[in-house]
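Q: What does the assembled structure look like for these inputs?
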Amino acid sequence: MTAATTLTRGGRSTLARARVGKLIRHAIGVAVFLLVWELASRTGLVEWLPPASTCLARVIGLAFDPEYLADLGSTLLAAVIGLPLAILLAVPVGLLLGTVPVVEEMTRAIVEFLRPIPSVALIPLALFLFQPDINAKVALIVYAASWPILINTLYGVRDVDPLAAETLRSFSFGSAAVVWRVSLPSAAPFIFTGIRLAASITLILAISVEYVVGGAGGIGAFLIQASTALDDSAMVDVIAVLVWSGAIGLIVNTLLLRAERRLFKWRDA
Amino acid sequence: MIKTLVKRLWLVPVALVAWELITRAVDDPFMPRPTVIVARMYEMWFSGPLILTDEAVDNFAPSIIRLVGSWGVAVALGIALGVAIGRTAWLSDYIDPLVEFARAVPPPVMFPVFLVLFTMGTQVQVATIVFGIIWPILLNSIDGARNVDRLQIETATVFGVPASLRLVRIILPAASPKIFAGLRLSVSLALILMIVSELKGATDGIGYLLASASDRSDMPALWGGVVVLGVLGYVLNTLFLMVERRMLTWHRGARRTA
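A:
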């Protein structure tokens, strides 16, 4: 930011021009892609592919489709409940494991055994253990989203400047104060990266659970339902939802990335 | 050696015993005892003539073949395309938003696309895995190939090193740390997609075993399936880390001296 403000007027406008040029090339890329898609479909070159215009019309149509909106709400709700719970669970555990090496060494084997279990393998089990289905969905999201947050917190705490911690200790601050004033702030950027990774995992898990449950609503159920249609509408619906979910993923990731840069600007300096 | 092992692993048997005792005390049909799970696993899968039973061979093998095969296809495609795109400087601005978007799509969403396209079975599963995991590989390959030190390439060009040799000796090694970061992500993602694609409408595979155990409310078999998948995940991850360490030793060495 400081570099940009110290630039001369001419320098700034070159920068702006380069940015506009880049945006234009982005737009051209997307336009060419859509055009090729449209042509490939209209000319019958790719028979199964519905035209881009039809799919995009359906993308807009979905925004006014109450059934789809209810399903979308159900998926996002599980993610919005699950992610904060995962943060509340994983950050304290990560801080504990990171600051008390004995505990970390003791539990390392257990962690190393649990971590590689693919979370989707637990879906059928969670459906038995947690009822109704929304609970199973949230439980699995919490489980899966906790890992990247836990691991990143652990790395973040290990990365803490020992001098800062020792300084505080020598001024006879207690270990709780050291964790609160040194470990947590200096691990915060790592933790945030973990949360960003976890956010994309929540969607993967929610949609996977919805596939398996089927009747319980959510984007996953909507997709399975749509894919069983026998006419051409199946592919149009599926692609439209794919565009939606990609857009949601992109927006969430961009927002979190922006927040990360803004919150931890002090770190780069 | 033994002392450190004991020090590291003593909590594992303690946890297993605690699990056994707790499940005995709770006596919940959904939480079978670990001994029951192990007995059921042995009886179902590991009591055959050559250790594995027919059921195990018929379901584990297709899963692993599909997983490894699809991963191989995605790796080959992802690295080839990624390096090509990364080395074509003018292309990046046009293609970036599309690749970024494709990566943001939650991979399981690909599954119904192929459900519509193909009849159920291996085709759907392979396509789901390949298209679900190719994006991290592609993006990292683009990134790695794009940021190769220009001086090295120009030096090689000046000395008349042919393009194919420049690719193998300079570009690929320089991009490999990035590429491996993408590959690591893709391994666990491939396992996830293998299971998701087998849970729904498959006729064989480990995911299918899970689904059918769940239909029969056979809890020990269900837990057993989770254990098998956990072991599979552990083995894949360990193998990958071994290969990565071997392939990237020079990188870490170079970084250390630098």
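The domain at 52-268 of chain A is CATH 1.10.3720.10 (MetI-like fold).
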